[in-house]
Design goal:
Elements: H1 4-17, H2 24-46, H3 48-59, H4 64-69, H5 71-87, H6 95-110, H7 116-134, E1 148-151, H8 156-160, H9 174-188, E2 192-196, H10 203-216, E3 220-224, E4 236-239, E5 245-248, E6 255-259, H11 266-280, H12 286-296, H13 300-315, H14 326-336, H15 339-349, E7 355-357, H16 365-374, E8 375-378, E9 383-386, H17 389-393, H18 406-410, H19 415-423, H20 430-438, H21 446-456, H22 460-464, H23 470-482, H24 486-503, H25 509-525, H26 529-535, H27 544-560, H28 564-581, H29 584-600, H30 604-619, H31 626-640, H32 645-653, H33 657-663
Parallel strand pairs: 2-6, 3-4
Antiparallel strand pairs: 1-3, 2-5, 4-5, 7-9, 8-9
């Protein structure tokens, strides 16, 4: 999968190079013809100055004879072909193309244009292409990210599409506490929970409060596919951003449904009304408060929507009463707004998203005040949300309408959160968003968009890139990691390992081992230690540096799931390998983890002795290890209950007063 412009350039080059009567001049012609589409790629790879120089050479309109004599033109040809090779799709490859590229490589080497590292790069890509042609592995199905993302309590509102907690503290009275107790009791017993109830019955708020309480109790919470909870262990919960479904780690399918309709008390409904009214500037009389509660039927969504109606009445300087039924309330909300805005909101309601990017709907100046009253707007993430599902239902109708979300999410304040808000309710647009983002990989915004896609629609990106070379996928992995898009990196690595496994043989076996370790590292970084351990199950790489990394990952992952004795065994082996390799940073990092393993095993005296030794050595070490000194010193302080002022001196000497302050040197 490549951009339309790049794709046309690649096809043009493939047609030229795959021809027996091939000429270098044809490559220059392809670049001239498609320069507007590929200029951004050359700028991102070589810098704007070099891209301008390449364009200048192309504009000279050189002929074949001049090409053969020009060192600079040969250099440009090598760069043009490097982009072709790096982006090559296997559907364009052929034996003739490989043979001609090998011939070109020899020419470039002879002319001194191809440095050793670039020569090896070309040879690696050509080797893969040749082997895949021989084994008929043009594309490979399969490969996906683990559809989970670990979250903090601050992330819960956007992940659920429920933005109220960013504006108001949530009401927690006897009714809420009763539901939370029932849900948490099931979670503690390893049973999944699905909340059910009428629209606006408070399912979303109760899901949020349950997750927030679980995080407070030390649970690690993930958004994603609850079916993956069975692969996890310990105090962990997976919730579905599309529903009201929570599954604890290790759950094998047991589920309990809890109806939350009418569970909130009158006092809680009154408190909800008073908090929203105060925040929204709506004056609520005692009689009005009584009517809100009486007509709500115990439904907090009715209270929220009724208060919206009253707020809109105040804007229009009208005196309004609380409608006595849900249907009357919905009709009132439609009548409160200008007809043109009602039409826009009706269309917007069709995507069924709880929240959405601010740019998805454009309103006129005369509509803006109404619009901002109907929705909650959270500027830091560039998101709007309906105040309640009741409000959204007031504008719903059963027709289809086309909309183009890509440009909106691409240009939003936070592309990841914008894409998440739409994909969590409309997963079918994942393929479209992914295809567009993959066509603009030289734009930074593409990576957070793809991160949302691979989390909520795993396998989509791998399917679009299934005929890419492993080399290209590895390049994208590097960029994804740099951008913090670790789920995307996992999906790309999963696809890469599948491709190499499909090829078989020993030629690229070492590369497969390296990719396997890298995949496990990414899973560990994503706080998925169980998945990292599965990836490394039965894995024994031949390369010593890979053995070190795999043992290190195993040890750290086992620590994460409290299997301390097994963690200790693997970390001891990693320590032995690191000492043989004479890497001080690796050795100290592993020793610090061994201290954690000792503590977990109840061997506190040994742990104290070891951490004291580590800190003593690092105090005297070079300043490049100051981060490890700080990490070790914090552990020592926790164990001994006092500062080590040699640490303070070292942190200050190395020029890190912020770390010294965090350690407590100035208190």
């Amino acid at each position: 999968m490549t951009s339309m412009g790049l794709g046309e350039y690649l096809e043009c080059c493939a047609k030229q190079i795959g021809n027996k009567s091939f000429s270098l001049e044809g490559i220059l012609d392809c670049a001239r013809l498609h320069w507007d589409s590929i200029a951004g790629i050359f700028t991102s790879l070589y810098g704007s100055k070099r891209a301008e120089e390449i364009y200048s050479v192309l504009n000279q309109g050189l002929k074949l004879g001049e090409v053969e004599e020009s060192h600079e033109v040969f250099k440009v040809v090598s760069e043009l072909l490097e982009v072709f090779l790096g982006s090559l799709d296997m559907t364009l490859a052929s034996p003739i193309l490989v043979s001609n590229l090998e011939m070109i490589l020899n020419i470039l080497v002879e002319k001194g244009i191809m440095p050793e590292d670039r020569r090896r790069l070309w040879e690696r890509i050509l080797l893969e292409v040749k082997l895949r042609l021989e084994k008929n592995v043009l594309w490979v199905e399969g490969g996906s990210a683990t559809p989970l993302i670990a979250l903090s309590d601050e992330d819960l509102p956007w992940a659920l599409g429920y933005l109220w907690p960013y504006f108001l503290d949530q009401v927690e009275g006897k009714g809420v506490e009763g539901v939370l107790k029932e849900v948490q009791s099931s979670i503690y017993e390893g049973i999944a929970v699905r909340l059910k109830g009428t629209p606006g019955s408070g399912k979303l708020a109760l899901t949020y409060l349950t997750l927030k309480h679980l995080i407070t109790e030390g649970y690690l919470v993930y958004a994603g596919d609850p079916n993956y909870a069975q692969l996890l262990s310990g105090d962990k919960v997976v919730f579905s951003p599309r529903g009201y479904y929570l599954s604890p780690a290790g759950n094998k399918g047991d589920i309990k449904e809890i109806d939350v309709s009418g569970r909130l008390t009158l006092e809680e409904l009154k408190e909800i009304a008073l908090r929203i009214g105060a925040w929204d500037g709506v004056k609520i009389s005692e009689s009005m408060l009584g009517a809100l509660v009486e007509h709500s039927g115990g439904n907090p969504g009715f209270v929220e929507a009724a208060l919206l109606h009253l707020a809109l009445c105040e804007m229009s300087q009208r005196r309004c009463e609380v409608p006595d039924s849900m249907e009357k309330l919905k009709a009132k909300l439609r009548a409160d707004l200008p007809p043109a805005l009602v039409e826009k909101l009706t269309n917007l309601s069709l995507i069924s998203a709880r929240c959405f990017p601010t740019g998805l709907l454009e309103v006129g100046e005369d509509e803006e005040d109404f619009f901002n009253r109907v929705f909650l707007k959270y500027d830091p993430l560039g998101l709007y949300s309906w105040r309640s599902l009741v409000s959204r239902e007031a504008f719903s109708r059963k027709i289809a309408f086309p909309y183009n979300p890509y440009e909106v999410v691409f240009s939003s304040e936070s592309p990841f959160h914008s894409a998440w808000s739409l994909l969590s309710s409309s997963p079918r647009i994942g393929s479209y968003v992914a295809a567009k983002a993959l066509s603009e990989l030289y734009e930074e915004q593409s990576y957070p968009l793809l991160e949302a896609v691979v989390t909520l629609s795993p396998g989509t990106v791998a399917r679009l890139l299934r005929s890419s070379t492993v080399y290209r996928l590895r390049v994208l992995v590097g960029v994804a990691e740099k951008m913090g898009s670790l789920a995307l990196a996992e999906e790309l690595l999963s696809l890469s390992t599948n491709i190499l496994k499909s090829m078989g043989g020993e030629v690229l076996a070492e590369e497969l081992e390296a990719l396997t370790v890298e995949l496990a590292e990414i899973q560990a970084k994503r706080l998925l230690p169980e998945l990292a351990l599965r990836t490394l199950s039965g894995f024994s790489p031949r390369d010593e540096s890979l053995r070190l990394r795999s043992e290190w990952i195993r040890g750290a992952s086992l620590l994460n799931i409290s299997e301390y004795e097994r963690a200790f065994t693997h970390l001891q082996e990693a320590l032995r390998l690191s000492q043989e390799g004479n890497s001080r940073r690796e050795t100290y990092s592993i020793r610090i983890l061994i201290v954690d393993a000792l503590l977990g095993m109840g061997r506190r005296d040994e742990a104290v002795k070891e951490i004291e030794s580590i800190v003593k050595e690092l105090v005297r070490a070079e300043c490049t290890l100051v981060d490890l000194l700080f990490e070790a010193a914090i552990r020592e302080k926790q164990l001994k209950g006092k500062n080590n002022y040699a640490v303070c001196a070292s942190l200050t000497r190395c020029g890190y007063p912020d770390l010294a302050g965090s350690y407590g040197c100035f208190s």
